[in-house]
Amino acid sequence: MSTEPSEPKPARDQVTIHINKDRFTITSPILGSELRTLGQIPAENQLFLEQHGDEPDLLIEPDKIYELKNGSHLYDLPRGTVGAELDEQLHAAAARLAAAMVDEAGDGTRLLRWEAHLPSHWAPDHVQLFITVPPAYPAQAPSGFDVVGAVASKAGQAPAGSGPRDVGGVACQHFCWNPAGQIDYTEVDGLWRFAKFSESRFLTVP
Known about the structure:
The chain has a six-stranded antiparallel β-sheet. It is an alpha+beta fold. It has helices at 32-38, 84-96, 190-199, and strands at 13-19, 22-28, 30-31, 45-49, 58-60, 65-66, 73-78, 101-104, 110-117, 122-123, 126-133, 145-148, 152-153, 162-167, 170-175. The chain has two domains: 13-78, Ubiquitin-like (UB roll); 84-203.
């Protein structure tokens, strides 16, 4: 009697991770719900996986499987206030920024776009900037800002703390530029203040 060959099971590895300040040894891949249980994450909080570089941290969803590596760090945050408060902030910012518009990406992420004139030591001197509002906003601050296309000094020098990335099929330049907790993102002018802070990156030569 012949039997059909069974499909090989995916390899599972023992890895050490951190959830908030606690260290755990887990078997990866692992369900998001298992990570939440392991870290005793309150039901009202969201769990995030830290990413390297300028990439926004990854929201861990309970019903998805994640392949973690040794040294992965996760943390939880209270859920951001969305809906009317976020819409109010976006409307207030768009009313005060040049040629501003609000877009929604395919995953529901909100983008605040506007135009800015740059000082003479930058090229080009007119650009479109945008902020990607993170899913846990305002508990989670924006991770820098982007320029559509690219900016350089008149000498051709790339700005420090910036790098290329693709956003929805559009070539952009991401700037890791944060105000170190000096903006209250729960205030109605929170996004507008971050937009103006983003523009301040170009007040000095790179």
